[in-house]
Amino acid sequence: MYGFLANKSIFALYIIASLYLRGYYQDMIYALRGRVSEIREGFFVMECSGIFFKVLAGERTITALSEREGEVKIFCATFFRENASPELFGFFEEESLRLFDLLHSVSGIGPKTALRMLDLGSVPNIIAAIMEGDAALLSTVPGIGKRTAERVILELRGKVTVQGSGDLVQSMKMDADVEDALVGLGYSRDKVKEALRLISKEVQGFQDRFKAAIKELRH
After folding, report:
1. Mutual orientation of helices 111-118 and 94-104 as an angle, nearest 10°?
2. Global pTM?
3. Domain ranges within the chain, ordered by starting residue
4. Which element (helix H / strand E) includes 197?
């Protein structure tokens, strides 16, 4: 019986994949549950009932996946380009998927740029930057210039909300300063970002967060 159910699952996924290739049901796969079989820079491979999906993901998702074992659930968005294979984007949290959809709805923001924007910080932090109109902070994302950042703020400011947005933005700016200082000392930016994510938000102030980041980097 289990073999029969497994075969049915594989057949169902085959039908879904076929429909994707024909351009139908672009939003049909809302989430995947399975095991991550491989992690590479910029994407991971997820096995679901014997079918392997290549899923594009940001640094924050990749880092979180590398710390998980066993079965995981990933929320998904799929995009089609003419004369190209469909691209599947994955997110650990449903709120990340919702913000990704909002960012991509802004003129000039493609799915890969929206994915890079999500690496700017947590979802509440990014929403806070939009609410506070901090174009300078948003434009630190590769591929986002000042005009594009201002367009994001203009189009999304009334669609998102978070409490304590001012404090969240100040926290993001402080971590950006710590990151720049450590990169200036020769540390890898990717490793510094990962170290800062591991530091408790209760650690406040530039000096304390700088020292805590150094400690994480030396582990």
Report:
1. 130
2. 0.70
3. 24-92, 95-156, 166-217
4. helix 189-198
